[in-house]
Amino acid sequence: RYTAPLALTTATTVQARVRVDGAWSALHAADFRRPGQRGDVRITEIMYNPLGDEEAEFLELKNVGEATADLSGAYFDGITYVFPEQTQLGPGEFIVLIRDLKKFRKFHPEAEVFGIYDGKLSDRGEEITLHAANGDVLTRVQYDDRNGWPLSADGAGDSIVAVAGGADPMRPQSWRAGAEMYGSPGRDDTGGTR
User: Fold this and answer.
1) Between the CA atoms of 31, 34, 35 and 36, what dihedral angle is there, to the nearest 10 degrees?
2) At a CB cut-off of 8 Å and minimum separation 6, what does 98 contact?
3) Which positions ≥6 away from 145 have C-beta within 8 Å?
4) How far is CA 155 from CA 20, 42, 94, 131, 138, in A?
5) Which range among 20-24, 35-39, 68-72, 121-125 shows the weakest confidence by mean pLDDT?
6) Which pTM value belongs to this model?
7) Measuring CA to CA, which residue among 61, 59, 60, 58 is closest to residue 41?
């Protein structure tokens, strides 16, 4: 039993559940980081069901921390992609991963693409987790096409973008529909900073 707050001195994923009348609740998880502690890579935009061509989907990462993040060997659950050795993401920099270059270029002819992943983002929602090479969780989100998530991102032309200050990327309140049709891969959305 914990009767006082826990002091977290490093990036930590906390998993917890509650026991009531002999029954355990579902397991909940939250990631905690101190600002400036290290590179802080987050999933900041997801185009999971693009209007016009499903293969034009993309996933955007941004380093919102104050130090360079080393993504060498980092990998995902949800899509298949492993970052090559010497992958460094500086503070404020983006990485865009896509499903199909030709289809993506129809909507974003000048966006910088870092890599092409295998698999497909689910149109109904799923959990996407980015792991460091050692298996530690760097960031994750479990988006949905309902239950409080932006409905227009499900095939109407919008992406979902992280809300500035959104504390828990697993909650729909930390996301909004993108302000730009077909998304804004590799740069901040015009509807506000992330």
Assistant:
1) -120
2) 56, 57, 58, 59, 104, 113, 115, 116, 117, 185
3) 49, 123, 124, 125, 151, 153, 154
4) 41, 24, 24, 28, 28
5) 35-39
6) 0.79
7) 61
